[in-house]
Amino acid sequence: MNILVTGGAGFIGTNLIERLLEDGHKVVSIDNYSTGFETNEIEHENVTYHNVDLRDAIDFDFFMENPDLIYHLAALPRIQPSFEFPALTFEANVLGTINLLEWIRSKENKIPIVYAGSSSFHGGVYKNPYTFTKWQGEEVVQMYHKTYDIPMSICRFYNVYGPHQLTEGEYCTVIGIFEKQFREGKELTITGDGEQRRDFTHVFDIVDGFVKCGNSLVIPNAYNAKVDGEIFELGKGENHSINVIAQSFDSGYTYIPKRPGEVQETLCTDTKAHELLGWKPTIDVLDYIEGVRVLWTEKM
Ligand SMILES: NC(=O)c1ccc[n+]([C@@H]2O[C@H](COP(=O)([O-])OP(=O)(O)OC[C@H]3O[C@@H](n4cnc5c(N)ncnc54)[C@H](O)[C@@H]3O)[C@@H](O)[C@H]2O)c1
User: Fold this and answer.
1) How far apart are CA 22 and CA 71, in angstroms?
2) N or C: fewer beta carbons within 10 Å in the chain?
3) What letter does residue 258 receive in the DSSP assignment?
């Protein structure tokens, strides 16, 4: 298939493109490199990268005229920076999504789109600007689906970690921060009392669910599924406290103040993705950390 990926230079986008190339697809990435990196670009004859800002309403035909499928990942993706930049977060996450859908609407053959949603939805959509804008993105996709018959699915991701994750800066997530601190022999910094629990889901599992969803949307009955218009929850289905995660590095740790806008717990209890898509997450976060720990202990 010909596939358009937005946010292809980011963490999840890079893992997605690796998988799509392995599966034999032709891929075009559009990304404005605000939180993504040129160093993530994969050298392969079947992928091209373009520096494009989705906040600009442009004709995406220039990059890929008639994709069979779109994976929409581009967004400003974190809670904490969104407090400082709510308008910018809204523009990237909501206006960017509208611009993409307007382009699809202009076409005779409506291109199916799979939207990267966030599990933060379950903690309350007004808890922080990020969560609000990701939910508004979902609503916009729903509106274009219901009003203009654009085929779509939404996949809500739970606390993603793994290769290409950020390990520094304000867009960094907790496993990335802990890995960096561990490598540098520093104490791990736990926010609050560390009893908040997260459903950590490996990026390979996330990508597998996302791809199963996309395939099912394009190839009717690919997995005996009817996925058009559905929302899927992609989470491992078990959670751990941040204290347990830190302790599993077998390293020193310390506590720093709690951050605003964070929920106490994420946990995926919905199994629709298992039933309709045949998706089954396989990687355990504690096994992953053990691998990281052994690898870096040998190198030190
Ligand atoms: N990482 C997680 O734990 C997680 C959890 C839930 C949902 N998500 C969602 O998954 C998607 C990917 O997240 P990620 O962790 O890979 O983040 P990321 O920052 O690594 O990737 C996002 C990409 O979008 C690009 N981008 C941002 N604004 C853009 C714009 N205006 N135009 C074009 N490109 C733009 C960035 O440059 C970046 O490459 C996001 O939509 C995020 O909300 C991620």
Assistant:
1) 16
2) C
3) P
All structural domains of the chain with their residue ranges: 2-299
For 44-57, the pLDDT digits (tens) are 999 999 999 999 98
Residue 159 in contact with ligand 1 by CB distance below 6 A: yes
Both tokens of 105, joined, read: 């609407």
CA 16 – CA 10 distance, rounded (Å): 10
102 CA distance to ligand 1 centroid (A)? 20
Supply 11's token pair: 């963490």
- Please work out, in degrees rounded to the nearest 5, the angle formed at the alpha carbon of residue 130 by the alpha carbons of 164 and 259: 85
Kindly report the pTM of this predicted structure. Answer: 0.97
pLDDT of 180 higher than 90: yes
In CATH terms, the superfamily for domain 2-299 is NAD(P)-binding Rossmann-like Domain (3.40.50.720)
140, two tokens? 């916009």
> Residue 82 and residue 90: Cα distance in Å, rounded?
9
- The arithmetic mean of pLDDT across residues 222-231, rounded, is 86
